[in-house]
Amino acid sequence: MSKDLLMSTLVCGFLGLVFSIIIADSLIEITYFRIFSILFAITFLALSLVFLMYFIELRKTATKFRSNCLLFVTIYIFVAGIFCWFPDQGWWFKASHNLRIFSYILIAIALSFVLVFVAMEIYSSPKFDKLFKRKDGPSMLLPRILKSQIILIIALAIFVGLIVGSIVGVVDIEDSEDAYYDLKFSIVRALFVGLAVGLLAGSLAYTMRSKEKKEISQKYAPLETKKAIASYTTVSQEDELL
Predict the structure, then answer these.
(1) How far is it, in rounded angstroms, from Cα 195 to Cα 19?
(2) Is the Cβ–Cβ distance between 187 and 168 less than 8 Å?
(3) How far is CA 240 from the centre of its chain?
């Protein structure tokens, strides 16, 4: 196993474990969890097909580290969708209650992967630069902040965490004597977990981006040097002829 493959597995797996704190602890007690599980399953299975097609195209041109991470996105999302489809059935859940928690961990890993890659695609998109760049001068302060990939990923993580916390709080209102407190506590917990995942995902994205730039520079630098030498040689020969 290559170092790139091992590092992508360990880092993203750790991200998933952190994010699973809120998911495994909150969603397991939802009264209508069956409805949510079917929605999660459909979403993850559909995403796995999209990422699989994207992986096939990206594999031709992307660096090895990034394509390996994308392959794990596809695998984790697909497995998470399968586990979500039968949250309370099947021999794996009858055998042990901990396997249900394992399914949430898979979901969390998939969400962490999606979070990182969505942020990286937004950050590396040329349209992102055009959107936050003034025509009459340099970029303003806010666009410079938004262009920071770490800040962008943290914001996405907090947003996802708030959505999860809000859903959990609203669904649990029927079974709670103090619905407002539960909702407030759930959102606060989601905020802190989302912030932690954002920091970790930002570090991962920064590492991936730096490594990708280094691989590209190492791959194309010799070629550019050869082109420059060839161009200089051609110009020199023309000068001699003149």
Answers:
(1) 10
(2) no
(3) 57
Q: How far apart are CA 161 and CA 118, in angstroms?
A: 16
The label of the residue with tokens 């010799």 reads 222
Alpha-carbon distance 238 to 153, whole Å? Answer: 53
Contact 205, 120 (CB under 8 A): yes
AA identity, residue 130: K
- Give the residue, 171 or 204, on which the prediction is more confident: 204
Helices (H), the chain: 3-26, 33-58, 64-85, 91-95, 98-124, 126-131, 141-146, 149-171, 179-241
pLDDT for 129 beyond 60? no
**Cα radius of gyration (the chain):** 23
> Which bin fits 90, alpha (ψ -120 to 50), beta or left (φ > 0)?
left
User: What is each CA distance from 175 to 30, 35, 169, in whole angstroms?
Assistant: 9, 17, 10
Using 50, 70 and 90 to split pLDDT, how confident is the model at 185?
low
Q: What is the mean pLDDT of residues 212-221?
A: 63
For 59: left if phi > 0, alpha if psi spans -120 to 50, otherwise beta; the answer is alpha
The mean pLDDT of the chain is 54
Can you give the length of the chain in residues? 242
